Amino acid sequence: MNQPKIVIIGSGASGIACATKLLDYGFENVIIVEAESRIGGRIHTIPFADNVIDLGAQWCHGEKDNMVYELAHKHDLLESTGDVYESYQCVRSNREVVPEDVSQRLKDIVNDSLVTRQMELRNCNGSLGSYLNNKFYEALRRPENSDIDMAIAKEFFENYKKFENSVEASDTLDDVSGKGYLEYWECEGDILLNWKDKGYVEFLRLLMKSREVKKEWGILEKRILLNKQVATIEWNRNDCCVQIRCVDGDSFVADHVILTVSLGVLKEQQLKLFEPKLPVEKQRAIDGLAFGTVNKIFIEFPQQFWPDKWTGFTMLWRDEDIQEIRGTSRAWLEDVFGFYCDHNQPRLLSGWIIGANGRHMETLPEDEILDGCMFLFRKFLQWDIPEPSNFRVSKWYTNENFRGSYSFRSMYTEEVGTSARELAQPLSVVTTKPVLNGEPTVEPLYNQSRCDKPIVQFAGEATSDHYFSTVHGAVEAGWREATRLADFYGMLRKNCSAAVKSSL
């Protein structure tokens, strides 16, 4: 049969995985159109300080049933981040370091709740926030914890909730569905495996087989068109094809389009992107699934000013201190919840910021952001802090090609009753004509048999039932859609062969 033309929109992990899998299946007429001037999507590794940093995806989350791990570990590309995100210091806004025995007991309380969540949240009708709040303060009331200062406990819990929001990409844990939280499946094994001194871009090179082919984009060389922002997708044409029109005036007619853009882009553009508009069920999925913002702050110093075994700190704001910045130009600093060390970058501290304040930070001049971070260091830490030598922040929300970081299941998701499966459902046409031009021998088949042709397909992490928000979820979604087309054309070949045999 003639080769169908397949256009993939987006060269993130899902788009690249889909394209490489299609080539493995024998499809040759495959291209990717990418709005950015680079490939990778929410994987964005850049040179910085002594090595590289990942502005987006950073870790391979788990080992068992994680295809990222399965591909990467055999090349010795991964290593454990260790206990950086467990052994951090808790520092109050008066520079008081919470005693290690107290901070460890508070960490144990929130970590213990992780064990019981899987069972208890099944019967939860509320938010993750209300559940965690009840669990935390219930544990504090136990006799063995009666000596913990309640002010410190409250400060710790407020910081912990920000950390949890960074995991979910939510503005507040009251937005996160308790039941929906369980839809995410955590892979067994180390959930914070980093890419040593190479960054997550190395995984894309594995997918594209850059090492074997000795080209930057490997087997996708000359198949990726950068700076091609899509303006419209016309998907209900009489010829059972799809026309893609780009902002620069270029257009493509394809047999299949596979859309791997972020849920944030779909939320913002769906009403003007699709002609005609999407079916109601698809619109509900895009509207109902949640998508949030998490940003990173990287600061390089001329030399390490912290002790060798120090792994970082989280900021516990006293009430009187947080009131001093609320309502001021530094109010956004409230949602910077911690800075951490990286043993591959010995002069670097990396910080995290969530939610509305994270989005606001993106709009500020970089010197104002840096000034705010230095304010935090000097307010919380007891050491002399040198002036930094380099600085970089991520900006996922203000970039119109992303509009945020990753997806989660909100209370609104639960209310409207939608799911990733509805988002992943392709737009199909029912045809009784040859699916491809140049196939007159199979035309009698279509006079007798109707065929659902998937013409617009949806991939990306938000379409994953259980691995949303992850690279391995995005890759599996890309593979899923490639397999959908392989199965479709395998069925066609089987039917065509049967039709020919019956006519003999």
From TrEMBL:
PROSITE patterns: PROKAR_LIPOPROTEIN. Pfam families: Amino_oxidase. SUPFAM superfamilies: FAD-linked reductases, C-terminal domain (SSF54373), FAD/NAD(P)-binding domain (SSF51905). InterPro entries: Amino_oxidase, FAD/NAD-bd_sf, Flavin_monoamine_oxidase. Residues 14-485 form the Amine oxidase domain. This is Spermine oxidase-like. It comes from Musca domestica (House fly).
